[in-house]
Amino acid sequence: QDMEVRVLSPAPRMQQDQQRIIDQVAHDVRSRMSGDSSHDWWHILRVWNMAKRLCELEKADGFVVELGALLHDIADWKFHDGDESMGPKVAREILVSQSVTNDVIDHVCEIIATISFKGAGVPTPMRTLEGKIVQDADRLDAIGAIGIARAFAYGGNKNREMYNPEQKTVLHDSKEAYFNSGSHTINHFYEKLLLLKDRMNTEAAKSIAKSRHVFMETYLEEFFEEWEGTT
Ligand code: NI
Q1: Cα–Cα distances in Å, from 48 out to 21, 24, 64, 201?
Q2: Contact assessment for residue 61 and residue 176, using Cβ atoms and an 8 Å cutoff
Q3: What is the pLDDT of residue 177?
Q4: How far is ligand 1, taken at its centre, from the CA of residue 211, in Å?
Q5: What's this model's pTM, rounded to 2 decimal places?
Q6: Which of 8, 24, 78, 172 stands 20 to 30 A from 41 (CA)?
Q7: In the chain, what is the straight-line distance between the N-terminal and C-terminal CA atoms, in Å?
């Protein structure tokens, strides 16, 4: 037997295939992202990078994590009248076209179907470590300086008020109530953004979330002081 044959073992070839698939999916996703600047390609790129960082710390399956991060907002229900089946459907089409194996496709689609925040009182558990990582990466992009910018970009797109002191904070017990709330953007901090640090799955994400959370609290204090004209 020729030793050189062994150099071409299946494992490295598989890695190369996986990298090629990830590159092509990234290219495809970039051309399809059409949301506002809260859900554009740059959001996907930040989540993808954060997911890779968490994946290395957590020793998860990088192929599933990267595909999940890239495809997690491919047809976001918030932009499709609350239809949650669109995302997994479009993701499956893309992955089938890349000849990804069925078990990976099912895993990635499960992550996409279950990732979203759906209201303060609605649990959104992730079954696998790979899902937990993608969910954490997505939620880290919803808090801190970037999270604040994204909240106002989304609110602007939906024509919402920045703030309305006459509207009390509302926390939602169902996905429908959360989806239909339409309240001002400052309320979004209380109905979602300030709750996220306690809903991170991995230790690494919990630690990153801490400083981003403190930054949002400082931001809100300043916002209210300027609103009242006391600073
Ligand atoms: Ni997202």
Answers
A1: 15, 14, 11, 17
A2: no
A3: 76
A4: 20
A5: 0.88
A6: 172
A7: 80
